[in-house]
């Protein structure tokens, strides 16, 4: 199968949303508003940014509310079409009902889950696996919710349990699928759920899964509403590397082991003050393997940061949070840059949409890590310090 590109997204949006009553008494679930716009509009804006040109809503319950708001999609910069089935249709039946509107390969998603999708990465994975369907799976290592899926080392899904009872489960299907239309063509006309199709794909070994540590937000039940509100709340956030950005980088293979070795780069305190004045929340993201190498202790690092924050406060500046990887070079952790783990830690702890943040570092590892997390990343140089970069990228 040749490599494919995805230009069409299909959104399952026909259910009655009974677990969200009374909110869904007069509006369908995807139209519940947060900060002046319906939840599903966040998905549409994301899809457009990721290169999607056409959206097909698989609608049912109160479908006219969706159609009245989004129309043909021209006001949102893409084309929107509607397949309106009976309210009684289950998700599989709704997909089969729209068969004639579907591309040969398309992105299928639930209307009630959101995370900043990297579509090109998911498509690349789909092309590599050459299976009928590929999906995005949340690692769920933090026990955020009950797992419902398991994959093997080759990335093939080996178990799917919609009741979430099995002890072998190790991830969560979060509702982003690249689908070969063959599965729709071969589906029965029966009123079945898409979950039943997933089970068949697992048995056929035709479902691949790619893991993300980026926690999703889901509009599934009332208890989740506060989490969705926190995630979608507009925020101004910048991540900063430390060595080489805020303070002078120590010699190669050495570390800032005590406060006396910490030296602010000219302009860094002023830059942080400027960002705080502009209303930004600032998080430090730093590799600190000196601890794993036995050259310093965690207490030494804490002392350096305590003194750093005190000095910043003297200049009217502050850092809101610090994330450090303390592992060695060969420990195989998920947090050491150029891996994006520390960004996911911050995002999960503070309900951050990383695609709407900025990261400022000073070397290629920072650029790779930031881009892996979907963050706009900028680098300081000898000619351009933190203050120069900040005044270029922040209005």
Tell me briefly what this model is.
The protein is an alpha/beta fold and 395 residues long. It has helices spanning 39-49, 63-70, 91-97, 119-129, 182-185, 194-203, 225-232, 268-277, 298-314, 341-350, 364-372, 386-393; strands at 8-13, 33-34, 37-38, 54-59, 79-84, 105-110, 113-114, 133-138, 149-151, 157-160, 172-180, 207-212, 217-218, 237-240, 281-287, 321-325, 358-361, 376-379. The strands form five sheets. Strands 5-4-1-6-11-8-12 form a seven-stranded mixed β-sheet, with helices on both faces.
Task: Explain the overall architecture.
The protein has 395 residues and is of the alpha/beta class. The chain has two domains: 218 residues, Alpha-Beta Complex (Spore Coat Polysaccharide Biosynthesis Protein SpsA, Chain A), CATH 3.90.550; 157 residues, HAD superfamily/HAD-like (Rossmann fold, 3-Layer(aba) Sandwich). Strands 5-4-1-6-11-8-12 form a seven-stranded mixed sheet, with helices on both faces. Strands 16-15-14-17-18 form a five-stranded parallel sheet, with helices on both faces. Helix 3 crosses helix 6 and helix 8 runs parallel beside helix 12. The mean pLDDT is 94.
